[in-house]
Design goal:
about 260 residues, alpha+beta, Phosphorylase Kinase, domain 1, six-stranded antiparallel β-sheet, 10 helices, about 15% strand, globular
């Protein structure tokens, strides 16, 4: 009943329109409830997709003029008929825009799908580090962090031994990409935080999985260095504001552990 009560107010919560005390209460609830946190993240991703879709297609001036000429082609029609034609034209524009946006999202090429995934990973990295509680399991011991994920995500993974390396493990938390649950681990390197994301590749959408397997470099506009690869049925992302060499060093440790 508690979850159903919050889910009914989820959109209001995400829009920041609930009272401050309710906001804090839901924040605390979502950190411990996988169902509510998944629903919240899915709504956020949907809002972002709609925002992106809204910018993908804008009717050209020529198209607008053509519709206006059709509406004004018979000036002797009654005001009511003219209004109906104008309304019909507006509907055509709206339907055309929505259809174009929908097809653009569904049939977007691999590059746009990959760039969108990289942007989502960067957002998760920033949002988590900006949180007052960036990790839900706080430990430098991999044998404590790894078991914490059992029962929370539908797969298992190995963490590397960090002895004699410059990296240290800070902890981890659950996260979601493409509505797929995964693990988010945070490592420290010279006071810089590096995020490691692990997802089950078969649970990702085919378009996204194919785009990531294209092995193209990360977008230049990302403010972070990022490396991703697939191994043992899992998709790994390593991202942080450290050098490419540092990202690669941590990636090699993770690959050896897997």
């Amino acid at each position: 009943m508690v979850c159903e009560s919050w889910k009914a107010k989820l959109d209001t919560y995400l829009d920041g329109e609930v009272a401050e005390d309710e906001m804090r209460t839901f924040d605390a609830h979502a950190r411990g409830c996988a169902s509510c946190s998944a629903d919240a993240l899915a709504r956020v991703q949907m809002k972002r997709a709609i925002q992106v879709a809204g910018k993908r297609f804008t009717p050209s001036a020529e198209f607008r003029q053509r519709i206006q000429r059709r509406v004004a082609a018979k000036p002797r029609r009654s005001f009511r008929m003219g209004w109906m034609l104008a309304a019909a034209a507006a509907i055509i524009l709206a339907v055309g825009t929505l259809t174009s946006n929908y097809l653009g999202i569904r049939s977007g090429n691999e590059a746009s799908s990959r760039d969108h995934a990289y942007s989502e990973i960067a957002d998760l990295h920033v949002e988590t580090l900006a949180s007052a509680s960036p990790v839900d399991v706080v430990s430098t011991d991999r044998h404590t962090v790894k078991p914490w994920f059992q029962g929370k995500i539908p797969f298992a993974f190995n963490l590397p031994e960090l002895q004699n390396s410059p990296f240290s493990l800070l902890g981890g938390r659950m996260t979601y990409l493409d509505q797929t649950p995964g693990a988010h681990l945070i490592y420290d390197l010279r006071k810089h935080h590096i995020s490691v994301f692990v997802f089950q590749e078969r649970s990702l959408s085919p378009t996204l999985a194919a785009s990531l397997n294209a092995n193209s470099p990360s977008p230049k506009q990302l403010p972070f260095n990022l490396e991703t690869w697939s191994q043992g049925g899992l998709r790994y992302f390593v991202i942080g504001d450290v050098s490419v060499a540092d990202i690669d060093s941590l990636a090699r440790l993770l690959k050896s552990a897997s």
